Amino acid sequence: MELMTKEIEARAQAQYPLGSSFDQMVVAKFFDPTGSYAWYLMNQDPADPDYLWGIGDRYAVECGSFSLAKLRTYRGPLGIGIERDKLFKPEPARVIWERLLARMGATA
């Protein structure tokens, strides 16, 4: 499965000027089907499409950059790569951030 569609890329790049602001939409969710990692895409640098920005749900919930190339090439212990959640619907970044923190028993 292709991680980035043209629609996702267009939405993510349009939000790039918003930087790290939570006043934007999460436009896609990527996840490791054999683990507990997930990445919520907020924006993408149009000049460097490998540079993605969003929310990472790993050992902790954090906001930061991640690499499209690394998502595409990663293979877990069973040889399975990162997938895109095809059922994910765009949501405000702040809503996802607060929901993930609440799940961990933390607050914003």
Explain what this protein looks like in three dimensions.
- It contains three helices and seven strands; from the N terminus they run αβββββαββα.
- It has helices at 6-14, 68-73, 93-103; strands spanning 25-26, 28-31, 38-45, 48-57, 61-67, 83-84, 91-92.
- The strands form two sheets. Strands 5-4-3-2-6 form a five-stranded antiparallel beta sheet. Strands 1-7 form a two-stranded antiparallel ribbon.
- The model has no long low-confidence stretch (mean pLDDT 94).
What attributes does this structure have?
108 residues; alpha+beta; five-stranded antiparallel beta sheet; two-stranded antiparallel sheet; 3 helices
Total count of strands:
7
| Unreliable stretches | none
Calculate Rg over CA atoms: 13 Å
Number of domains: 1
Helix content: 10-25%
Task: Provide the residue-averaged pLDDT.
Answer: 94
| Straight-line distance between termini | 34 Å
Helix/strand structural class: alpha+beta
Please summarize the sheet with the most strands.
Answer: 5 strands, antiparallel
Query: Element order, helices and strands?
Result: HEEEEEHEEH
Question: Given the C-alpha coordinates, what overall shape results?
Answer: globular
Question: With helices defined by DSSP (H or I, 4 residues minimum), what is the helix count?
Answer: 3
| Strand order, sheet with most strands | 5-4-3-2-6
Strand proportion, as a percent range, falls in 25-35%
